[in-house]
Amino acid sequence: MAKYAYPAIFTPEDGGGFSIDFPDLEGCHTCGDSLEDGIEMAEDALALVLYGYETNDREIPSPSSPSSFPLSGNEFVNYIACDTMEYRKMYNNRAVKKTLTIPEWLNESASAMGLNFSQVLQEALLQKIQTK
């Protein structure tokens, strides 16, 4: 889980839209009705594909140099960035029940303070993940 930036080839289409291809990533293609829409769609496609790579323990290839891609016509290369952790938070937010064991004294003290165990655990896990 990380932040990534990959070059994408933007191919202008009739009507102002764009086809977008990430040559470094298998199956990573999208399109947009405008340049702005294309960039937004490319960010989403990139995050989705890289999330799949991470989930399936596939090796994530290094981004190529934009100058290594042969371009034709009005095509151009633009870097697209994404954060797969943010993508996970947005689209994989289903609650999962966990059973854990803590000392009785800790349970009593936390309960007396009115602490929400789920919230405290989530906050602690997020802090641990973000420091890596």
Order of helices and strands: EEEHEHHH
By secondary-structure content and strand pairing, the structural class works out as: alpha+beta
In round numbers, the mean pLDDT is 91
Poorly predicted runs of 5 or more residues: none
Seen as an oligomer or otherwise, the chain set is single chain
In DSSP terms, counting alpha (H) and pi (I) runs of 4 or more, how many helices?
4
State the share of residues found in helices, binned by percent.
Answer: 25-40%
How far the N terminus sits from the C terminus, by CA atoms, comes to 10 Å
Main sheet: strands, sense, barrel: 4 strands, antiparallel
Globally, the shape reads elongated
Quick overview of this protein structure:
The protein has 132 residues and is of the alpha+beta class. The chain is 39% helix and 20% strand.
Describe this structure in words.
With 132 residues, the chain is α+β, with helices and mostly antiparallel strands. The chain has 4 helices and 4 strands; from the N terminus they run βββαβααα. The protein has helices at 35-55, 84-91, 104-112, 117-130, and strands at 3-12, 18-21, 29-32, 76-83. Strand 1 and strand 2 (18-21) form a beta hairpin. It is elongated. The mean pLDDT is 91.
